[in-house]
Specification:
It contains twelve helices and 23 strands. It has 432 residues and is an alpha/beta fold. The chain has two domains: 204 residues, Enolpyruvate transferase domain (UDP-n-acetylglucosamine1-carboxyvinyl-transferase, Chain, Alpha-beta prism), CATH 3.65.10; 208 residues, Enolpyruvate transferase domain (UDP-n-acetylglucosamine1-carboxyvinyl-transferase, Chain).
Length: 432
Amino acid sequence: MTTPAAHADLWPAPTTTGPLDATVTLPGSKSLTNRALVLAALADGPSVVRRALRSRDTLLMARALTALGATVDTATEDWTVSPLGGALPSGRAEVDCGLAGTVMRFVPPAAGLVRGAVAFDGDPHMRKRPVGEILTALRTLGVAVDDTDGALPFTVHGTGAVAGGTVVIDASASSQFVSALLLAGARFETGIEVRHEGEPIPSLPHIEMTIAMLRDRGVAVDDGEPDRWAVAPGQVEARDETIEPDLSNAAPFLALAAVSGGSVVVRDWPTSTTQAGDALRDLLARMGCTVERVPTGLRVTGPADGWRGLQGLEVDLHDVGELAPAVAALCALAGSPSRLTGIAHIRGHETDRLAALAAELGGLGADVVEHPDGLSLRPAALSGGVFHTYADHRMAHAGVIIGAAVPGVLVEDVATTGKTFPDFAGFWSGLF
């Protein structure tokens, strides 16, 4: 876990004084935007990513693909993408991954398809996040990679083509290992077959999202056997795509309805989606909220007495681990015990989220116990104080949720939310 920053840049989280009623329009999904950008860069012609999320992670992806020879025009909310060329103009490129796991993992397989050396690095914490399985898989496919201990920094030496074939990986640390190889697999000479051997893969909906987007572009994907995926070689058809709202980013806003006893509508909630954030509908209903579809989107109404009426949860969040910080924050406020399991893998996200949540919620008085694969929480009286975020946007979401119920919460480095939601703090404050 990253060490907390000094007590600087502390943001007083606003606290509710009664039921809030709001309608919010969320930025586009980071997961969908970055997958769409990669596929557009690998496509057989130009395409447009409409209502693209403009955030640090997506701009890093646009710059990474531009470094590989694509062009990504980010001047408006509809981003026009022209695909990769054959060779890097100078024979070398550099990719800044920042704190974006999708850039660190999705771009290296594409880098094998251009001629030249592509050097990858990122923020200091990214050097601790796992990527070795992808680098080993690329070597198996004939791509030369220079790295130290399977982590950043590393260099991919592309030759303009990747032979393809079968790789066996352990994707138990991240579903992105599978998605990264599938996204580029159609452009490999013989396609790719990915087999997983290890503990169950977390966040399977993200692999389903990848497969759906590939099929939408005419790519044949065989996923009929557990822990095996095969992508046939062929063209990736250029396709304009409109990005759905980021449903994981909906978590703090819908939590605000639960905390205040008010009602929040998220506009344009899709009727069918592969986003993990759609699980919020079930999770919040189980905690005592009323959840209903309305003509404009999705409405959540909290218990009449707000957070005091919330019920605890016993739930396996293995497939939707990105929701764990927001859910844990609500469980810390709930009036009955909770146990969140199946999320050991979130220790490898932007920070060790289990350790961070236990430390920060506990620091405000929560009765929280950290387990190898999750957290247990019991009702307790919380008080104000500093809530560190560890440069992790989801930790900041947890902090503002607690702050909505508990006066005096100071969220450190709330600007880290810019990873997926520009000006989150201003937007959040405006709701109060």
